[in-house]
Amino acid sequence: MSDSNKAAIAAEKEALNLKLPPIVRPPEDIGVDTPTQSKLLNYRRSKEQQKTINQLVIDGAKRNIDRTLSKRIPSSPEPDYPPTMTSEIKKKGFNYIYLKQCVESSPIVPIQQEWLDHMLMLIPESLKEGKNREELLESLIEEVSSDFEKSMKRYLVRSVLVKPPVKWLEDEGGPLPESPVGLDYSNPWHSSYVQTRNQILANLHIVHPTMKMLLDLGYKTFANTVLLDLTGIRAKGPIDCEALKTDLSLQAKKAEEKIMNTWYPKVISLFTKKEALEGIKPEKLDAFYNCVSTLMSNQLKDLLKRTVEGFVKLFDREDQQGLPIFKMELTFDDDKMEFYPTFQDLEDAVLGLVERIAETLQNVQTVPSWLSGTSTPVNLDTELPEHVLQWALDKLKVAIHQNLEGARKHYETYVKKYNWLLDGTAVDLIETFQAEDHTFDEYTEFIEKFFSLASEIMLLPQWVHYPMVRLDCEDLKTGLTNKAKAFANILLNDIASKHRKENESICSEFEAIKEHALKVPETTEEMMDLISYVEKARTVGIRDLILRIQESKRQMSYFLDVFLFPQEDLALNSTVLMWPWKINPIFDENDELIEYAKHKKENELIAKREKLILELEKESRRMEEFAEFAELDRMQQYVTDVRQLQKRIQESEDAVQFINKEEELFKWELTKYPELDKLKVNIEPYQKFFNLVLKWQRTEKRWMDGGFLELNGESMEADVDEFSREIFKTLKFFQMKQKKELQEKRKAAKRRSLGEEKVEEEPKENPTITMCSTVMEQIKTFKVQTHSMTF
Questions:
Q1: How far is CA 159 from CA 60, 97, 164, in A?
Q2: What is the pTM of this model?
Q3: What is the DSSP string of 73-115?
Q4: For the segment 594-608, what is each residue's pLDDT rounded down to a tens digit?
Q5: Cβ contacts of residue 669 below 8 Å, gap of 6+?
Q6: Can you tell me where the transmembrane regions are (predicted)?
């Protein structure tokens, strides 16, 4: 190495030594020997040790440079400098680059593990989570260690070497912090340090030893704690939102009481000591206490803020390890499906907890207020900032809405599938179905749809679990099931009513058969009707009723599974089923009754026939007596007798009709009564003749005994002629009848006395013919008399 180079290196070393200030340790009697002061002294001591290590590294680098320069090989390649550069600049640039390489190759103390730990503590916990968190942390530590090593090398280079004023020399990494300008290290600085320190102690109260102790007390009390224990909420399982609110409110109250019974008395005890206000001038006392209040307020606000942040973090969807599980129910009330508690109630309960946390520690007195004991205490300002509360409320609203989305969709599933049971659709379907004419099987098919729906609802899960909600659906399931069963029961009651009416109809028909079958017939016709009725009942009626009973029995089998019969319906069903066995004895009793009535009616019919024959014989004899009537003065009596006989003939005719009808019912041969027909024919001329004679007698009497002036000759003549003609006809009729009877008698006598000598008998005089002739004469005489009177 040339002498000029050695001289340049020596000059640079001397200039470097002049720029580095001497290391001056602070006096040991500064500050008060407190725990906080001990920590500060340990921190300063570690800093001084680090500086000593760095100085040793610098000295080692200098020695390396000296050894390297003394052993430098002249044949080392030189950099390609610009041709315009002077030889002196080239030498300086080459020397700087070479020396820089030497300094950078010297050993560097690695970053302390304690520093890395502190840096890791500054990273938020949310960033430390994830699948690749270990790899990320290792990569971060390697990056920080590498940057630290590079920074230390740059610091060594700039601390050991002075960069020549050459523009083309590269300098990676940017400038280091500049040293203070204007400081004269050649002058003593201790006096100015003491002066500045005293000014700080007089005005900056935060560095007061008591404030340090207050800060240390707050750090120990609040650093690793929050007002609420939120770690085991999810482990407790499903909980009511009001229960959680009550539980956390009690925790907040107990935590507040604990703070006021532990931390606050310690704070007060700090300021009751004599040395608490040491060095504080009276005029600075208010400012000092304001600083105390500010520090206490900040500590309590930080506690409340961390508590709120911890509570908000519980509802983070990405981290559900601490998420509470709330009990919620799907309820069925007044034909409505609802949540209990509602989403709004749950949200209000959760947001209310934030407000409850914010209400905690709002009545903490300031130290001077407590020391003075005033009646109107002054409290610390511990109210959380509005933006913090609003942030918490907004985050919770979004998180609650997201976490309740699953429960909302489950509710919508119920609404989509079963709301038709509640909105009137089912009622309309049932009313339409009932208005139509449907069979029993169609009813049961429709009913089974509702029962199947009820079974489907009951098989749905009772609890549905979501990250934040355990949804209890039992009440809704029960309500919907009962609703479906109620609709089924409406239809069941409808067909049960029809079934009841059908059974009553069956029983009524059996009762009618019984009543009719056991009724004693009063007439033969009734008896025959009864026989026909019972015969039809035994064949067609009972068969149809048995078919209806079988259908009723089939329906009963269905009802016994799904319907609860009242006691009267059970008795009715039993009666219906027993009728086929009860009706046979009734038919047997009817057979006996019919047999007895038939025998009785036959005897009565025979008696009536015999009685009728006797009656006809009497009437015939009475008819023969009419031929002997010959007294005109008894004509009124004759008319009466004829009428009575006609009445008896009519009665006999009715009796014949009745007897013939009875004979038809008994299927006997009909009896005939020619005597009755003969009587009807023979009595008619007598009735006509007697009435005509009586009418003539009365008319003649009226003409003869009445007023003369009232008579009308023409009408009288016409009436007399009419009477005359009728009498004449009657006379001819009886004469012809008498002649015919005489001929028949002669024929009969001839047949009886065939071969014997005939004796001719003279016909007897007929009284009826005699009366006719007499009346004819009376009419003639009356005509002569009236004719002579008119002239």
A1: 13, 15, 14
A2: 0.53
A3: -TTPPPP---TTS-HHHHHHHHHHHHHHHHHHTS--PPPPHHH
A4: 778 777 777 777 777
A5: 663
A6: none
